[in-house]
From TrEMBL:
Protein name per Swiss-Prot or TrEMBL: Inositol 2-dehydrogenase
Enzyme category, top tier: oxidoreductase
Key words, A-Z: Oxidoreductase
Domain Gfo/Idh/MocA-like oxidoreductase N-terminal residue range list: 1-118
EC number of the protein: 1.1.1.18
Family: Belongs to the Gfo/Idh/MocA family.
InterPro entries membership: Gfo/Idh/MocA-like_OxRdtase_N, GFO_IDH_MocA-like_dom, NAD(P)-bd_dom_sf
Length: 334
């Protein structure tokens, strides 16, 4: 098949590399406002370069991958759907939830699949965790712990446009908690602080946060996030039930150092970047998209899924600012 890529920044370039290595993909068509980025992709992957999204949609592509700036996501999703072309779009659907809801309304009833990029759903550890929950082998769940710690903050310009740590970073934890447990979040309480880069505080954001999520069956989920984790990129999950407990991310590249005597775990070189931690997950995610394009599977992460994670992020943002518990229904109805 022939796949178009809109946007060739860090994640778009990774997707181009991944797609070029998939057996199902015969050719790539790319476009980016920065001509040098498109030229580099053409030289590296043998991609065809076009000068606009309109030209890409008219280039005979079977599916499109939207990796452009967040502000462009709604228009590009809608353009793909109007052209009848399956869409993969990196999260978020839109910069604000109201815009995201408008996108959802605009595509409802259209027979064009849309997949939103939440790559943890394709990581082997998280896949196995979900299977363990679904099988009942853990028994009734009572506690989930989800962690995302970045090794260093992104640039100040990125932070200023990110929508805040809950919408940019924690939202991955929120999505994977929903996906692994199969439950919905009903209420949140969030706290945060600034112990590092001044530009994060100046942007009105926090660099380290914690959130308590109450799920609809009473399970408690604890989410921990930070922009400052000097040892590396740390993504983990614990799921505790009345019969058993399991963990995702306890492997030799875990960026933690034990101080217990005689303990050598973890023994590997720590993960230092999200692309390192999730290389295989990204490959599985885009392989899934080729199956969506081929019509052999439904979207594994819909706009509805992405919006549910977004509501949790909005609730946590409000909770942080107002120092109180916030229900999901409160922000959904705001």
């Amino acid at each position: 098949m022939r796949i178009g890529i809109l946007g060739l920044g860090r994640i778009g370039a990774l997707h181009a590399e991944t797609l070029s290595g998939l057996d199902a993909v015969e050719s790539l068509v790319v476009t980016d406002p920065f001509a040098d980025a498109a030229k580099a992709a053409a030289e590296r992957f043998g991609a065809e370069v076009v000068d606009s999204p309109e030209a890409l949609l008219a280039a005979g592509v079977d599916g499109i991958v939207v990796a452009a700036a967040t502000d462009a996501h709604p228009a590009l999703i809608l353009a793909g759907v109007e052209a009848g072309i399956p869409v993969f779009c990196e999260k978020p659907v839109a910069r604000t939830m109201s815009e995201g809801v408008e996108v959802l309304k605009a595509v409802q009833g259209k027979d064009v699949p849309i997949q939103i990029g939440y790559n943890r759903r394709f990581d082997t550890g998280f896949v196995n965790a979900r299977a363990a929950v679904q099988s009942g082998e853990l028994g009734t769940l009572h506690t989930v712990r989800s962690t995302t710690l970045d090794p260093a903050p992104p640039p100040a310009a990125y932070i200023a446009a990110s929508g805040g740590i809950f919408r940019d970073c924690s939202v991955h934890d929120f999505d994977i908690i929903r996906w692994v447990t199969g439950r919905e979040v009903t209420e949140v309480y969030a706290v945060g602080g600034n112990r590092g880069a001044d530009f994060i505080k100046e942007a009105g954001d926090a660099d380290t946060t914690g959130a308590i999520l109450t799920l609809d069956d009473g399970t408690i989920a604890v989410v921990s996030n930070s922009r400052h984790n000097a040892r590396g990129y740390d993504v983990r999950m614990e799921i505790h039930g009345f019969k058993d407990s399991i963990a995702v991310g306890l492997e030799d590249k875990l960026p933690l150092r034990s101080v217990e005597p005689g303990v050598t775990f973890p023994a590997g070189t720590p993960h230092d970047f999200f692309m390192d931690r999730f290389t295989e997950a990204y490959r599985a995610e885009l392989t899934a998209f080729t199956e969506v394009v081929a019509g052999t599977r439904p979207s594994p992460c819909t706009i509805e899924d992405a919006l549910e994670a977004g509501w949790i992020a909005d609730a946590c943002t409000l909770s942080l600012h107002e120092h109180r518990p916030v229900t999901i229904e409160e922000v959904r109805q705001a």
